[in-house]
Design goal:
About 35% of the residues lie in helices and about 15% in strands. The protein contains 8 helices and 11 strands. A 5-stranded parallel beta sheet has the order 1-2-3-4-7. The protein has a two-stranded antiparallel ribbon with strand order 5-6. Strands 8-11 form a two-stranded parallel sheet. Helix 1 runs parallel beside helix 2, helix 4 packs parallel to helix 5 and helix 5 crosses helix 7. The protein binds zinc ion (2 copies).
């Protein structure tokens, strides 16, 4: 099995649904033999704040300082990067620039799709059920990739979470995302958090909600750059059996994973 010694997708207790601070992840990463640890918690947002989903603006400085103190303490043993995971939902370049000014990198992860016709302004990506829903998801991911703000797309196939089958529309959305990622040279992530959620049974049989083989088979065939992300929400899940299963998932599809992202701290 491929051995990957980097993880760019790591959370922090400030988001309200993860455990541990930067130093806790640093200690775990060193113990597990990682060489690069990117902390990329859910960024504060002007549009949707929920204390169980993301850190408040008031915690942002503390987040940055917490990573810096881990860098000072453990920087001789491991490269620790300051990152964020953001939604591409805000039509506000100043917002993204403000964040990018403060961190080394951002990963794109859509958990919400703006939805103008509904009672609420957003739809959860874990509840996209129609062709229209998943096409909208694809559109925001493509725009996010083109924005130039991001070094990678986390769980690009998360749109399959509640969609009944990998049908023609799902395949078209996959092609759109993958083609754009290739054009802009942005890696797509096989996400271990999807594996932690277990297997489900749909019209396509038994499989993970995400990552989906159908999606990554296309990505591999087209020559996209593919990485794994632990998406660890606890220090002990950095290199857990689901992270190992993500590596096995890549192996099964004969995918050679990229290990390093080009990030200058
Ligand atoms: Zn999270
Ligand atoms: Zn994440």
């Amino acid at each position: 099995m491929q051995h990957i010694k980097t993880n760019y997708h790591t959370h922090h207790e400030l988001c309200g649904h993860a455990q541990g601070r930067a130093k806790d992840y640093a200690v775990a990463a060193i113990k597990e033999g990682f060489e690069v640890l990117g902390i990329s918690d859910h960024a504060p947002s002007k549009l949707h704040y929920n204390p169980r989903v993301r850190m408040p603006w008031s915690a942002f400085e503390a987040y940055l300082k917490d990573i810096e103190s881990a860098q000072q303490r453990y920087g001789s043993q491991i490269t620790i990067l300051k990152g964020l995971e953001t939604e591409f939902t805000e039509d506000d370049p100043a917002y993204y620039r403000e964040l990018l000014d403060k961190v080394d990198y951002m990963i794109l992860a859509q958990h919400y799709v703006p939805w103008k016709n509904g009672k609420k302004p957003f739809k959860s990506v874990f509840n996209l059920k129609t062709e229209e829903h998943i096409k909208a998801y694809g559109k925001y991911i493509m725009e996010g990739i083109k924005s130039g703000y991001y070094v990678a797309v986390a769980h690009p196939d998360v749109y399959m979470s509640a969609y009944p089958a990998f049908d023609q529309t799902a395949e078209q959305v996959a092609h759109d995302i993958i083609d754009t990622a290739i054009e802009y040279d942005i890696p797509l992530e096989i996400n271990a958090q999807g594996i932690r959620k277990g297997l489900i049974k749909t019209n396509d049989g038994l499989h993970y909600r995400y990552p989906r083989k159908e999606f990554f088979r296309i990505a591999k065939a087209k020559g996209a750059r593919i990485m794994v992300g632990s998406d660890a929400h606890t220090p002990d899940s950095l290199n857990d059996e689901s992270f190992q299963a993500a590596l096995a998932f890549a192996d099964a599809l004969d995918i050679t994973l990229i290990e390093r992202l080009d990030i200058n701290p």
